[in-house]
Give the backbone structure.
Amino acid sequence: MSLKIKQDHARFRDIVRGRIKRNLKKYIQKGEMVGKKGKDFITIPVPTIDIPHFRFGERSQGGVGQGDGDAGDPLSPADGQAGSGQAGRGEGQHLLEVDVSLEELADILGEELELPRIVPKGKDRIIATRLRYTGISPSGPESLRHFKRTYKQALRRQIASGSYNPRRPVIVPVREDRRYRTWKQVPLPETNAVVIYMMDVSGSMGDEQKEIVRIESFWIDTWLRKHYKGLEARYIIHDAVAREVDRETFFHTRESGGTMISSAYKLAVDLIESEYAPTAWNIYPFHFSDGDNWSADDTRLCVDILQTRILPAVNLFCYGQVESPYGSGQFVKDLKESIGARENVALSEIADKDAIYPSIKTFLGSGR
Protein backbone atom coordinates (compact mmCIF):
# COMPACT_ATOMS: atom_id res chain seq x y z
CA MET A 1 0.00 0.00 0.00
CA SER A 2 2.82 2.40 0.92
CA LEU A 3 4.57 1.72 -2.41
CA LYS A 4 1.31 2.34 -4.30
CA ILE A 5 0.83 5.67 -2.53
CA LYS A 6 4.40 6.72 -3.38
CA GLN A 7 3.85 5.78 -7.03
CA ASP A 8 0.61 7.76 -7.18
CA HIS A 9 2.25 10.75 -5.50
CA ALA A 10 5.18 10.65 -7.92
CA ARG A 11 2.75 10.45 -10.86
CA PHE A 12 0.83 13.43 -9.53
CA ARG A 13 4.05 15.43 -9.07
CA ASP A 14 4.97 14.66 -12.69
CA ILE A 15 1.58 16.00 -13.80
CA VAL A 16 2.06 19.16 -11.76
CA ARG A 17 5.60 19.61 -13.10
CA GLY A 18 4.35 19.27 -16.67
CA ARG A 19 1.59 21.79 -16.06
CA ILE A 20 4.02 24.29 -14.56
CA LYS A 21 6.36 23.89 -17.55
CA ARG A 22 3.53 24.49 -20.01
CA ASN A 23 2.45 27.62 -18.15
CA LEU A 24 5.92 28.85 -17.19
CA LYS A 25 5.85 31.77 -19.61
CA LYS A 26 2.56 32.94 -18.10
CA TYR A 27 3.94 32.64 -14.57
CA ILE A 28 7.01 34.65 -15.54
CA GLN A 29 5.09 37.34 -17.38
CA LYS A 30 2.48 37.91 -14.70
CA GLY A 31 4.56 37.18 -11.64
CA GLU A 32 1.87 34.67 -10.76
CA MET A 33 3.37 33.48 -7.50
CA VAL A 34 1.14 33.45 -4.43
CA GLY A 35 4.18 33.92 -2.20
CA LYS A 36 7.18 32.23 -0.72
CA LYS A 37 6.68 29.59 1.92
CA GLY A 38 9.74 29.56 4.10
CA LYS A 39 13.17 29.83 2.54
CA ASP A 40 13.14 26.85 0.20
CA PHE A 41 9.61 26.57 -1.19
CA ILE A 42 7.18 28.70 -3.17
CA THR A 43 3.44 28.26 -3.64
CA ILE A 44 2.17 28.25 -7.23
CA PRO A 45 -1.49 28.20 -8.34
CA VAL A 46 -1.91 25.41 -10.91
CA PRO A 47 -5.29 25.52 -12.72
CA THR A 48 -7.41 22.73 -14.23
CA ILE A 49 -6.01 19.81 -12.26
CA ASP A 50 -8.91 17.81 -10.82
CA ILE A 51 -8.30 16.04 -7.54
CA PRO A 52 -10.04 12.62 -7.63
CA HIS A 53 -13.16 12.64 -5.47
CA PHE A 54 -16.53 10.93 -5.12
CA ARG A 55 -19.61 12.66 -6.49
CA PHE A 56 -23.04 11.66 -5.25
CA GLY A 57 -26.05 11.72 -7.56
CA GLU A 58 -29.49 13.12 -6.85
CA ARG A 59 -31.12 11.10 -4.07
CA SER A 60 -34.49 11.02 -5.87
CA GLN A 61 -33.07 9.14 -8.88
CA GLY A 62 -32.03 5.98 -7.08
CA GLY A 63 -29.01 3.92 -8.01
CA VAL A 64 -27.02 3.61 -11.22
CA GLY A 65 -29.13 2.30 -14.12
CA GLN A 66 -32.46 2.74 -12.33
CA GLY A 67 -35.39 4.86 -13.40
CA ASP A 68 -36.79 5.93 -16.73
CA GLY A 69 -34.78 7.36 -19.53
CA ASP A 70 -32.95 6.65 -22.77
CA ALA A 71 -29.28 6.35 -23.62
CA GLY A 72 -27.65 9.77 -23.72
CA ASP A 73 -30.05 11.46 -21.32
CA PRO A 74 -28.30 13.53 -18.62
CA LEU A 75 -28.21 11.80 -15.25
CA SER A 76 -28.88 15.01 -13.30
CA PRO A 77 -30.01 18.55 -14.03
CA ALA A 78 -27.27 20.94 -15.09
CA ASP A 79 -26.22 23.35 -12.35
CA GLY A 80 -24.50 26.70 -12.37
CA GLN A 81 -25.69 27.92 -15.77
CA ALA A 82 -25.50 31.64 -16.40
CA GLY A 83 -28.69 33.62 -16.32
CA SER A 84 -31.26 35.08 -13.99
CA GLY A 85 -32.75 33.28 -11.04
CA GLN A 86 -31.42 31.86 -7.83
CA ALA A 87 -27.76 31.27 -7.13
CA GLY A 88 -26.49 28.11 -8.79
CA ARG A 89 -24.82 25.12 -7.19
CA GLY A 90 -22.32 24.44 -9.97
CA GLU A 91 -18.56 24.43 -9.51
CA GLY A 92 -16.28 27.11 -10.86
CA GLN A 93 -12.69 26.77 -11.98
CA HIS A 94 -10.43 25.35 -9.29
CA LEU A 95 -6.91 26.55 -8.60
CA LEU A 96 -4.73 23.98 -6.89
CA GLU A 97 -1.93 25.57 -4.90
CA VAL A 98 1.16 23.35 -4.88
CA ASP A 99 4.42 23.81 -3.03
CA VAL A 100 7.43 23.62 -5.32
CA SER A 101 11.00 23.77 -4.08
CA LEU A 102 13.13 26.56 -5.49
CA GLU A 103 15.62 23.97 -6.73
CA GLU A 104 12.91 22.16 -8.68
CA LEU A 105 11.65 25.49 -10.01
CA ALA A 106 15.18 26.23 -11.21
CA ASP A 107 15.29 22.85 -12.97
CA ILE A 108 12.01 23.63 -14.73
CA LEU A 109 13.32 27.05 -15.76
CA GLY A 110 16.55 25.53 -17.09
CA GLU A 111 14.72 22.84 -19.06
CA GLU A 112 12.17 25.20 -20.58
CA LEU A 113 14.67 27.93 -21.54
CA GLU A 114 17.42 25.40 -22.36
CA LEU A 115 19.83 27.17 -20.05
CA PRO A 116 23.36 25.76 -19.76
CA ARG A 117 24.73 24.87 -16.34
CA ILE A 118 26.91 27.55 -14.79
CA VAL A 119 30.56 26.62 -14.31
CA PRO A 120 31.67 28.54 -11.20
CA LYS A 121 35.14 29.94 -10.82
CA GLY A 122 37.27 29.94 -7.69
CA LYS A 123 36.26 26.49 -6.44
CA ASP A 124 39.45 26.03 -4.50
CA ARG A 125 39.39 29.47 -2.89
CA ILE A 126 36.65 29.17 -0.27
CA ILE A 127 37.04 26.14 1.98
CA ALA A 128 34.42 25.10 4.48
CA THR A 129 34.72 22.09 6.79
CA ARG A 130 32.24 19.50 7.91
CA LEU A 131 32.42 16.59 10.33
CA ARG A 132 32.56 13.02 9.06
CA TYR A 133 32.13 10.10 11.42
CA THR A 134 34.86 7.63 10.62
CA GLY A 135 34.90 4.88 13.28
CA ILE A 136 34.20 3.62 16.79
CA SER A 137 36.29 4.18 19.91
CA PRO A 138 36.04 2.89 23.54
CA SER A 139 36.25 6.48 24.79
CA GLY A 140 34.64 9.77 23.90
CA PRO A 141 31.99 12.30 24.93
CA GLU A 142 28.62 10.95 26.03
CA SER A 143 26.90 12.92 23.30
CA LEU A 144 28.60 10.64 20.73
CA ARG A 145 27.86 7.33 22.44
CA HIS A 146 26.85 4.69 19.90
CA PHE A 147 23.90 2.88 21.49
CA LYS A 148 23.78 -0.14 19.19
CA ARG A 149 27.52 -0.85 19.38
CA THR A 150 27.43 -0.43 23.17
CA TYR A 151 24.53 -2.88 23.43
CA LYS A 152 26.26 -5.45 21.23
CA GLN A 153 29.47 -5.20 23.23
CA ALA A 154 27.56 -5.72 26.50
CA LEU A 155 25.72 -8.70 25.01
CA ARG A 156 28.97 -10.32 23.86
CA ARG A 157 30.51 -9.83 27.29
CA GLN A 158 27.54 -11.37 29.13
CA ILE A 159 27.39 -14.36 26.75
CA ALA A 160 31.16 -14.93 27.08
CA SER A 161 31.00 -14.75 30.88
CA GLY A 162 27.94 -17.02 31.09
CA SER A 163 25.79 -14.39 32.81
CA TYR A 164 23.36 -14.02 29.94
CA ASN A 165 19.94 -15.58 30.64
CA PRO A 166 17.86 -16.07 27.45
CA ARG A 167 14.73 -16.51 29.59
CA ARG A 168 15.32 -13.08 31.11
CA PRO A 169 17.41 -11.19 28.54
CA VAL A 170 18.44 -8.16 30.53
CA ILE A 171 21.51 -6.40 29.11
CA VAL A 172 23.28 -4.01 31.47
CA PRO A 173 26.29 -2.25 29.89
CA VAL A 174 29.22 -1.41 32.14
CA ARG A 175 31.84 1.25 31.56
CA GLU A 176 34.05 -1.05 29.48
CA ASP A 177 31.16 -1.78 27.08
CA ARG A 178 30.60 1.78 26.00
CA ARG A 179 31.49 2.66 22.42
CA TYR A 180 31.65 6.15 20.89
CA ARG A 181 31.69 7.57 17.40
CA THR A 182 34.95 9.08 16.21
CA TRP A 183 35.11 11.90 13.70
CA LYS A 184 37.41 14.09 11.70
CA GLN A 185 37.10 17.39 9.91
CA VAL A 186 36.83 17.11 6.14
CA PRO A 187 37.62 20.14 3.93
CA LEU A 188 34.68 20.95 1.71
CA PRO A 189 35.32 23.34 -1.19
CA GLU A 190 32.44 25.71 -1.79
CA THR A 191 31.70 28.36 -4.36
CA ASN A 192 30.09 31.58 -3.25
CA ALA A 193 28.46 34.22 -5.39
CA VAL A 194 27.16 37.73 -5.02
CA VAL A 195 24.50 39.41 -7.14
CA ILE A 196 24.71 43.20 -7.22
CA TYR A 197 21.39 44.64 -8.37
CA MET A 198 21.46 48.24 -9.57
CA MET A 199 18.37 50.18 -10.60
CA ASP A 200 17.55 53.66 -11.80
CA VAL A 201 14.86 55.10 -9.50
CA SER A 202 14.50 58.48 -11.15
CA GLY A 203 11.07 59.82 -12.01
CA SER A 204 10.97 58.08 -15.39
CA MET A 205 11.04 54.61 -13.76
CA GLY A 206 7.45 53.95 -12.68
CA ASP A 207 5.75 51.12 -10.80
CA GLU A 208 5.33 49.00 -13.93
CA GLN A 209 9.04 49.17 -14.67
CA LYS A 210 9.92 48.25 -11.08
CA GLU A 211 7.53 45.28 -11.20
CA ILE A 212 9.36 43.99 -14.28
CA VAL A 213 12.67 44.26 -12.41
CA ARG A 214 11.19 42.51 -9.35
CA ILE A 215 9.91 39.57 -11.39
CA GLU A 216 13.11 39.18 -13.36
CA SER A 217 15.31 39.36 -10.26
CA PHE A 218 13.29 36.55 -8.64
CA TRP A 219 14.04 34.17 -11.51
CA ILE A 220 17.69 35.26 -11.65
CA ASP A 221 18.03 34.52 -7.92
CA THR A 222 16.32 31.15 -8.33
CA TRP A 223 18.69 30.03 -11.10
CA LEU A 224 21.87 31.24 -9.42
CA ARG A 225 20.97 29.68 -6.04
CA LYS A 226 20.84 26.29 -7.72
CA HIS A 227 24.51 26.60 -8.66
CA TYR A 228 25.96 28.27 -5.56
CA LYS A 229 25.79 27.16 -1.93
CA GLY A 230 26.10 30.72 -0.72
CA LEU A 231 24.45 33.52 -2.68
CA GLU A 232 24.44 37.08 -1.40
CA ALA A 233 22.40 39.91 -2.86
CA ARG A 234 23.27 43.60 -2.62
CA TYR A 235 21.00 46.39 -3.81
CA ILE A 236 21.99 49.78 -5.21
CA ILE A 237 19.55 52.48 -6.29
CA HIS A 238 20.52 55.63 -8.11
CA ASP A 239 19.26 58.79 -9.68
CA ALA A 240 21.99 61.42 -9.82
CA VAL A 241 23.49 59.84 -6.68
CA ALA A 242 23.78 56.14 -5.77
CA ARG A 243 23.29 54.49 -2.39
CA GLU A 244 23.02 50.94 -1.09
CA VAL A 245 19.62 49.90 0.34
CA ASP A 246 17.76 46.76 1.44
CA ARG A 247 15.55 44.72 -0.85
CA GLU A 248 12.27 46.31 0.24
CA THR A 249 13.57 49.83 -0.35
CA PHE A 250 15.07 48.76 -3.68
CA PHE A 251 11.69 47.87 -5.20
CA HIS A 252 9.60 50.63 -3.64
CA THR A 253 11.69 53.80 -3.91
CA ARG A 254 10.98 56.49 -6.46
CA GLU A 255 12.90 59.71 -6.80
CA SER A 256 12.33 62.76 -8.95
CA GLY A 257 15.89 63.78 -9.76
CA GLY A 258 18.03 63.25 -12.82
CA THR A 259 20.03 60.17 -13.74
CA MET A 260 23.78 59.68 -13.44
CA ILE A 261 24.50 56.00 -14.04
CA SER A 262 28.20 56.25 -13.25
CA SER A 263 27.35 56.81 -9.57
CA ALA A 264 25.93 53.26 -9.36
CA TYR A 265 28.91 51.73 -11.13
CA LYS A 266 31.35 53.50 -8.81
CA LEU A 267 29.51 52.17 -5.75
CA ALA A 268 29.45 48.65 -7.24
CA VAL A 269 33.22 48.84 -7.77
CA ASP A 270 33.69 49.91 -4.14
CA LEU A 271 31.66 46.90 -2.96
CA ILE A 272 33.60 44.47 -5.13
CA GLU A 273 37.02 45.78 -4.20
CA SER A 274 36.30 45.99 -0.45
CA GLU A 275 34.23 42.84 0.16
CA TYR A 276 34.25 40.45 -2.81
CA ALA A 277 37.67 39.47 -4.09
CA PRO A 278 37.28 38.26 -7.69
CA THR A 279 39.65 35.34 -7.03
CA ALA A 280 37.23 33.92 -4.45
CA TRP A 281 33.79 35.19 -5.47
CA ASN A 282 31.57 34.71 -8.49
CA ILE A 283 30.23 38.22 -9.14
CA TYR A 284 27.07 39.09 -11.08
CA PRO A 285 26.17 42.80 -11.47
CA PHE A 286 22.68 43.39 -12.93
CA HIS A 287 21.70 46.92 -13.87
CA PHE A 288 18.19 48.02 -14.84
CA SER A 289 17.35 51.43 -16.26
CA ASP A 290 15.20 53.13 -18.88
CA GLY A 291 18.36 54.15 -20.73
CA ASP A 292 18.14 57.86 -20.04
CA ASN A 293 21.52 59.06 -18.72
CA TRP A 294 22.51 62.56 -17.64
CA SER A 295 24.99 63.26 -20.43
CA ALA A 296 27.22 61.70 -23.05
CA ASP A 297 30.20 62.46 -20.83
CA ASP A 298 28.76 60.35 -18.02
CA THR A 299 28.06 57.54 -20.47
CA ARG A 300 31.71 57.57 -21.54
CA LEU A 301 32.69 57.42 -17.86
CA CYS A 302 30.38 54.42 -17.39
CA VAL A 303 31.97 52.60 -20.30
CA ASP A 304 35.44 53.30 -18.92
CA ILE A 305 34.49 51.95 -15.47
CA LEU A 306 33.01 48.84 -17.04
CA GLN A 307 35.98 48.14 -19.29
CA THR A 308 38.73 48.75 -16.75
CA ARG A 309 37.28 47.81 -13.36
CA ILE A 310 34.04 45.85 -13.53
CA LEU A 311 34.29 43.47 -16.49
CA PRO A 312 37.76 42.11 -15.57
CA ALA A 313 36.43 41.19 -12.11
CA VAL A 314 32.99 39.68 -12.77
CA ASN A 315 31.56 36.48 -14.22
CA LEU A 316 28.85 38.32 -16.09
CA PHE A 317 27.60 41.89 -16.36
CA CYS A 318 23.96 42.23 -17.39
CA TYR A 319 22.13 45.39 -18.40
CA GLY A 320 18.37 45.36 -18.83
CA GLN A 321 16.76 48.40 -20.41
CA VAL A 322 13.13 48.66 -19.32
CA GLU A 323 11.07 50.66 -21.75
CA SER A 324 9.57 53.83 -20.34
CA PRO A 325 7.56 56.57 -22.06
CA TYR A 326 9.90 59.11 -20.48
CA GLY A 327 13.31 57.53 -21.15
CA SER A 328 15.42 58.14 -24.24
CA GLY A 329 16.69 54.54 -24.46
CA GLN A 330 20.10 55.66 -25.70
CA PHE A 331 22.25 53.94 -23.07
CA VAL A 332 21.82 50.38 -24.39
CA LYS A 333 22.87 51.55 -27.87
CA ASP A 334 26.06 53.03 -26.43
CA LEU A 335 26.81 49.82 -24.53
CA LYS A 336 26.26 47.70 -27.64
CA GLU A 337 28.77 49.78 -29.57
CA SER A 338 31.42 49.79 -26.82
CA ILE A 339 31.21 46.46 -24.93
CA GLY A 340 28.45 44.49 -26.63
CA ALA A 341 30.92 41.99 -28.11
CA ARG A 342 32.52 41.04 -24.77
CA GLU A 343 31.90 37.44 -23.66
CA ASN A 344 30.85 38.36 -20.13
CA VAL A 345 28.34 41.03 -21.17
CA ALA A 346 24.61 40.44 -21.73
CA LEU A 347 22.35 43.27 -22.90
CA SER A 348 18.58 43.06 -23.06
CA GLU A 349 15.78 45.43 -24.02
CA ILE A 350 12.61 44.74 -22.01
CA ALA A 351 9.64 46.43 -23.65
CA ASP A 352 7.01 44.99 -21.29
CA LYS A 353 6.23 41.94 -19.15
CA ASP A 354 5.99 39.75 -22.24
CA ALA A 355 9.69 40.45 -22.84
CA ILE A 356 10.79 39.16 -19.41
CA TYR A 357 10.86 35.56 -20.68
CA PRO A 358 13.39 36.12 -23.52
CA SER A 359 15.31 38.58 -21.37
CA ILE A 360 15.99 35.90 -18.73
CA LYS A 361 17.27 33.62 -21.49
CA THR A 362 19.53 36.39 -22.75
CA PHE A 363 20.98 36.99 -19.30
CA LEU A 364 21.40 33.38 -18.20
CA GLY A 365 21.98 31.65 -21.52
CA SER A 366 25.77 32.05 -21.57
CA GLY A 367 26.42 29.64 -18.71
CA ARG A 368 28.92 31.99 -17.08
The first strand starts at residue 35 and ends at 37. The two ends are 46 Å apart (CA to CA). The chain has three domains: 1-50+93-101, 127-187, 191-364. The mean pLDDT is 78.
